[in-house]
Design a protein that fits this description.
Elements (H helix, E strand, L loop, with lengths): L3 E6 L3 H12 L4 E7 L3 H11 L2 E2 L3 H6 L5 E4 L6 H11 L3 E3 L7 H14 L4 E3 L7 H12 L5 E9 L9 H20 L3 E8 L14 E7 L4 E7 L7 E8 L2 E5 L9 H4 L1 H16 L14 H20 L2 E3 L6
Parallel strand pairs: 1-2, 1-4, 2-3, 4-5, 5-6, 7-10
Antiparallel strand pairs: 7-11, 8-9, 8-13, 9-10, 11-12
């Protein structure tokens, strides 16, 4: 395949960002179709990248001019759109979450398995960040000894008006969930959510900040500070503590404007890896085997479900997952 013809579903912030990046920040691919429920938004993006507009997302998926699909639509639309991609046999890069709950996420995993092919890549971009990749290699090499603890920080300057306590889990904690699984190679067995005094900057009803305690199946504890109304900027850090030493990531970039600025290089690597893999081109050895798949999306959904339950009960909740 000389040039990968991509259909972009969703022309919001992330869909637009991906379409522009495919057009000017990667090689081997071209956006041919843009789809969005808002026709004006779709046409604005399409005109910028030289693509056609197809309003119906399912028509866009089956369009003969589309080899692969990038889904950046609202989360509630992912399940049916992913199943349509699988039915059409088309590779897909889907922004997180895989679906809105663990049950439907598992259904997507099972549907993909039935095809006998790995067709889904999920957009957990931190896996392509150089600091996260180096930390994973450092843990795997044994240089830190046995991993014991990870201390994580996730801060935003502000969040949209619709953001509630469940959003803190679904949109913020979910990244630390996947990062912990990626760094440690272990599943998460239990979650406890804790909140205390809220910041005066937090909207009424939003518990902010919150702390999450994740327990992996092999006994590593991962604590996460979630503070989404700091008023300062976007900040992500993690310190891995092992039996023979510790290492920190996130100091290089410090506080940035938003997640797209902080992880701009990661997004570019993520897209290029997907394009190369779908085209059958040589994949960079350093980044070719880190991409998240449908199982990773299901695992994250299962942990998020436990975290949301802990928000209600205030206690430790065991993660319920199917056998892989």
């Amino acid at each position: 395949m000389s040039t990968l013809r991509v259909g972009v579903i969703g022309a919001g912030v992330m869909g637009t960002d991906h379409a522009l990046r495919i057009t000017s920040g990667t090689t081997g691919a071209k956006v041919r179709v843009v789809s969005d429920v808002c026709e004006d938004r779709a046409r604005a993006v399409a005109s910028t990248v030289g693509a056609r507009v197809v309003i119906d997302p399912f028509d866009a998926i089956t369009d003969p001019d589309v080899d692969a699909v990038l889904i950046a639509s609202p989360a509630h639309a992912h399940e049916k759109q992913l199943l349509a991609c699988l039915a059409a046999g088309k590779p897909v890069l889907c922004e997180k979450p895989l679906t809105t709950d663990a049950h439907t996420a598992l259904g997507v995993v099972e549907a993909e398995a039935a095809t006998g092919r790995r067709l889904i890549q999920l957009g957990f971009m931190r896996r392509f960040d150089s600091e996260y990749m180096q930390m994973r290699e450092r843990i795997g090499s044994g240089r830190l000894g046995t991993p014991l603890l990870i201390h994580c920080t996730h801060r935003n300057a502000s969040v949209p008006s619709y953001y509630d306590n469940a959003s803190v889990v679904n949109d913020s904690l979910v990244h630390e969930i996947d990062a912990a699984r990626f760094l440690l190679g272990s599943e998460i067995a239990a979650v406890t959510m804790v909140s205390g005094r809220s910041s005066p900057k937090a909207p009424e009803g939003l518990r902010d900040p919150q702390l999450a305690l994740l327990e992996t199946t092999d006994g590593v504890l991962v604590d996460v500070e979630l503070f989404v109304t700091t008023g300062t900027g976007y900040e992500v850090r993690a310190e891995v503590v092992g039996s023979d030493g510790s290492a920190v990531l996130g100091l290089r970039d410090g506080v940035t404007g938003d997640f797209r600025q902080r992880f701009s290089h990661a997004y570019a690597r993520e897209l290029q890896c997907w394009i190369d893999a779908v085209r059958g081109a040589p994949v960079d050895v350093a980044t070719g085997f880190v991409a998240a798949g449908s199982w990773d999306g299901y695992a994250a959904a299962a942990v998020c479900a436990a975290a949301r339950h802990s928000l209600v009960t205030g206690g430790r909740v065991t993660v319920e997952m199917a056998s892989r």
